[in-house]
């Protein structure tokens, strides 16, 4: 595993912990299909949450919470529909709908990482 993959994995582990602290249940991590990957699939009450995780080292050119570009948001919505089709019971939309969240993590050279969770970004 290279340093970039290790940083991403570390960020996803922190995101899973943060989502759990927020009362969410992680259903799946790193779900892949031919159309792409969902970092985290979780449940927040009756809502299904598709969570994109962005991890950056401090001082990088872009803050991880810079947002989800329109193209990425569209792809996440397509992936959510595919996940529901393949994994959700009875292939119906969850009662609470589907939401796309973003967890941004900044890892400093020293000290604790900063973790931010934005709900409903796309």
Automatic annotation (TrEMBL):
It comes from the Bacteria. InterPro entries: Restrct_endonuc-II-like, tRNA_endonuc-like_dom_sf, UPF0102_YraN-like. Coiled coil: none annotated. Gene3D superfamilies: 3.40.1350.10. HAMAP family: UPF0102. NCBIfam families: PRK12497.3-3. Belongs to the UPF0102 family. This is UPF0102 protein HCK00_17515. It comes from Streptomyces zingiberis.
